[in-house]
């Protein structure tokens, strides 16, 4: 166990050397989050120039904006048009999706790694988190439902890093989780004292993702360990992650019964009926799957 613990710590310390490059200017993500903050004074023109510097990014944004996921009645013809219709935060989330999928495509993932399934799970988590965030108090003005969506998109990036750069350990942890019937993150802790949430948060820090999101990602399995000001949104992300694991076989969330164990512990303070309605309205199963497929094809 000690040898595995030391290997985990070395992996974490050397993560910056393994961090895959994003397919756009390094300053784009920090500027995007700065521009979508409540007190932002940056203009869309500033972001537009950054997007234009990243070859092919604008056209990929437009392809996603015109996909079945958004169901536009008219064709979105320019980046400015996309922002006017979807909002800058939604365009930011589109860029996040493109960035994450491209980064993972460059990772040396082992044969059999279920990236398509993982990506779909991240999209379901993001959609459920946004829906839940609209229906309950987050106890902070710093994080919006759209920020919860972004955190959902990012929350399992640590799994891909683990599989890509420690494939033998990834297989061993998977086997441990299966044999003992325990969650993957618990198997990670038992195996080498490090879970993918911490790995993912560290990776996102290298990419310039703000603390308000890395904190949620870091504690999406243990939200009570998050900083006090982030515990409410961290609970929402934790709940969304749990619920997203249950939608694989479901055609719709309209009749989905929220488990009492989730509403009473992670989603405290929300009206269960309004919560369920908001989640169903923000997480159309077919549209989420369509978006996952579209992003993977970019």
From TrEMBL:
CDD domains xref list: HDc
Sequence ranges assigned to domain HDOD in this UniProt record: 22-223
InterPro entries: HD/PDEase_dom, HDOD, RNase_Y/CdgJ
Protein name as annotated: Putative signal transduction protein
Organism whose genome encodes this protein: uncultured delta proteobacterium
């Amino acid at each position: 166990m000690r040898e595995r613990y030391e290997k985990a710590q070395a992996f974490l310390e050397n993560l910056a050397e393994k961090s895959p490059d994003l397919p756009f200017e390094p300053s784009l993500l920090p500027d995007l989050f700065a521009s979508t903050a409540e007190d932002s004074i940056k203009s869309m023109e500033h972001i537009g120039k950054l997007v234009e510097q990243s070859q092919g990014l604008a056209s990929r944004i437009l392809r996603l904006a015109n996909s079945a996921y958004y169901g536009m009645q008219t064709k979105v013809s320019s980046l400015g048009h996309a922002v006017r219709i979807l909002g800058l935060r939604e365009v930011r989330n589109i860029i996040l999706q493109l960035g994450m999928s491209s980064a993972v495509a460059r990772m040396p993932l082992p044969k059999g790694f279920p990236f398509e399934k993982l990506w779909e799970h991240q999209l379901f988590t993001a959609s459920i988190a946004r829906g839940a965030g609209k229906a309950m108090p987050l106890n902070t003005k710093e994080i919006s439902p759209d920020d919860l969506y972004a955190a959902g998109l990012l929350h399992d990036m640590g799994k891909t890093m683990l599989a890509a750069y420690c494939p033998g350990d990834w297989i061993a942890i998977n086997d441990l989780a299966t044999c003992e019937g325990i969650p993957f993150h618990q198997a990670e802790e038992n195996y080498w004292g490090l879970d993918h949430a911490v790995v993912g948060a560290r990776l996102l820090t290298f990419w310039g993702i703000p603390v308000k999101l890395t904190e949620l990602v870091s504690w999406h399995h243990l939200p009570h360990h998050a900083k006090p000001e982030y515990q409410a949104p961290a609970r929402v992300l934790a709940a969304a992650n749990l619920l997203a694991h249950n939608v694989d076989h479901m055609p719709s969330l309209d009749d989905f019964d929220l488990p009492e164990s989730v509403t009473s512990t992670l989603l405290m303070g929300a009206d269960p009926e309004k919560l369920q309605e908001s989640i169903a309205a923000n997480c159309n199963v077919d549209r989420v799957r369509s978006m996952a497929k579209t992003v993977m094809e970019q």
